[in-house]
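Schema walk-through. Below, the input block comes first and the output block second. Nothing else is stored per chain. Lengths vary across the set, and this one has 365 residues.
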Amino acid sequence: MWLHRLSPIISRSSANFRSRARSLRSPVASIDKAIPTQQNEPLSSMNLFERWIRQPQELLLRRVLLQIHLWVGLIIGLYIAVICLTGSVLVYRNELYNVFSPKPTIVAGSGPTLPIEELKSAARRAYPGFEVTDLRTGETANHAIEISLTRGAQTTRRLFHPFTGEDLGDLLPAGFRFTAWMLNLHDNLLQGPTGRQVNGIGALLVVLLCATGAVLWWPGIRNWRRALVIDPRANWKRLNWSLHSALGFWFFGFVLLWGITGAYLSFPDTFTQIFDYLQPLDNTSSDERFVDRIQYWLAYLHFGRLGGRGIPGCGRGLCDSVTKGIWAVAGLVPPVLFVTGAVMWWNRVLRPMLTRRSDASTASR
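--- output ---
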């Protein structure tokens, strides 16, 4: 009888012993030894490092960085999504240009080709106000004539029938023109040098997002493993959070790289001045400087076009195919981070605020 009464006590003691043994074997336990063991120990008894390790959410600095990360992400999130989506496509821009490059246009019919002056007059009639700046005949009489026309800063290149002077359409196929338009959007926001400078500021803000995001990612010693994985079984709010956290961690290097290299490509002269200050030019030596190698890699790493450079045993074609594929897929992650971050802001901030206002409005009636 007495043994029967002691059985529950023995079972609980055994369970506690096994639980403590598992905790001692855990790799987290060795880190936990350096910080207080009480889960609910007051913050006042911890130093700054212990608070950061255990309860980072309670730190004022973290809350400040959260506001910076939140509002910078919301303000430039759509911009980042556009730049990254176009960038994923433009990784293959050389291939796209090859596919959509103009092909010789052969016309039907025969007869004498119109004189050059008549062809120019036909082009001016078709495009009033434009001046013909270039005219190229084909290899045979049946090749369409290529004519370039300019009005101010606007330039167009058209094909004309060699026998009738009829406008046959744009010299550049739609795919070629769309690729060029997308490249202009990605590089200059369709605004020339001013857009390039705005792009540079956007790239610096991406670096700021990376820096603040790296600090905010740490969830505390008890939860850091959960922040590394995506749990598909969780409810949609938890799934949204895990997507933002895990993708932000695993693709942090890519986003930071694009921010730094994007700033370099937007402000190359500024970076060159900084590099020259750090390692001045030596006119007496022809050796390549270390900063020259940095600038070289800053340009190539942005586009993922490594081409086997510095990678032993990797052929140029193979390496380009692999790295371009990786860069193209990774470029889809920042838009996902923007969407998941905006959803978290809606759930945690905007929707509760709208609910409170709606309740207050209903109560006042």
